[in-house]
Amino acid sequence: MVHIDVMDGHFAPNITMGPVVVQGVRRATDQILDVHLMIENPDRYITDFAKAGSDIITVHIETCPKVREVFQQIRDEGARPGITLRPSTDLETIEDTLEDVDLVLVMSVEPGFSGQTFIPGMMDRIAKVREWVDKMENGRPEISVDGDVKLQNAREVTNAGADIVVSGSGVFGTDDPVTTMKEFAAIDG
Prior knowledge:
Elements: E1 2-7, H1 19-28, E2 33-38, H2 46-51, E3 56-60, H3 67-76, E4 80-85, E5 103-107, H4 122-134, E6 142-146, H5 151-160, E7 164-166, H6 169-172, H7 177-185
Parallel strand pairs: 1-2, 2-3, 3-4, 4-5, 5-6, 6-7
């Protein structure tokens, strides 16, 4: 899958791409497009990102006062909803949303910039989400982890409970990104 970070310069202190870039990526690949909206008022843009080709649209609990309505909007547009939160936000704020999503994204750095250091306490957070998900009876969301995941800590992240690891600088900051991606693919939890 291809994870695409979308930032608006408000919720996350950086600016990245919008629906036009997602549309270009969609034309270039048939991989699942996992679009992470680190933006204020994501409900205003769900339709645009869905029409651009997003398969999964993940929103932050901090930006969605009516999160279930946003999840329904995502589903109505033909995509699958995901939920995430900043590392500094209490994990319990998303616990009652797990039945409504297909993906839980555990951020292991604060949203905004590549190259930050993995926050060690996030391993406990990953394990807690895994515990919650494993207790669910009907359908279970996948657990994804984003933020300073590299070959050196990827196995620990998957052992803590992640199904999916997201790596930007851990792949593209290496001398041979293609080989690095193959090495990531060989890791299992």
